């Protein structure tokens, strides 16, 4: 995961889903080495679905690898806009 993106997600409490790691070392999931094939897109979709449908609350410590929690209502109300 790109450190700058990870850092921003951590500091802002934004849910971050790592769709890169499941594709690492799977060149067969890319048509041109950059863009995922339909099978690669399926892996990304399954990764996103798995995180979003996880009934366990996400914590700032990253209970789901590669993710961060959404801010609480109180935290969201205190964000500078």
Protein model, in words:
The chain is 37% helix and 0% strand. It has helices spanning 3-12, 38-52, 73-77. It starts with a helix and ends with a helix. It is built from three helices and no strands. It has one domain. The radius of gyration is 15 Å and the shape is flat. With 81 residues, the chain is mainly α.
In percent, how helical is the residue content? Answer: 25-40%
Q: Report strand %.
A: under 5%
Give the tally of β-strands: 0
Distance between the termini: 27 Å
Give the overall average pLDDT: 78
Oligomer: single chain
Question: Total helix count?
Answer: 3
Gyration radius (Cα, Å) is 15 Å
Provide a compact summary of the structure.
The protein is mostly helical. It has helices at about 5-10, 40-50, 75. Mean pLDDT is about 80; it is low at about 75.
Topology record:
Blueprint: H1 3-12, H2 38-52, H3 73-77
Keywords:
81 residues; mainly alpha; flat
């Amino acid at each position: 995961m790109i450190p700058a993106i990870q850092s921003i997600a951590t500091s802002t409490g934004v849910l971050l889903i790592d769709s890169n790691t499941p594709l690492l070392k799977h060149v067969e999931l890319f048509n041109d080495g950059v863009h995922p094939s339909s099978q690669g897109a399926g892996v990304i979709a399954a990764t996103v679905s798995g995180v979003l449908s996880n009934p366990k609350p996400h914590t700032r410590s990253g209970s789901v690898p590669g993710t961060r929690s959404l801010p609480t209502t109180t935290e969201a109300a205190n964000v500078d806009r």
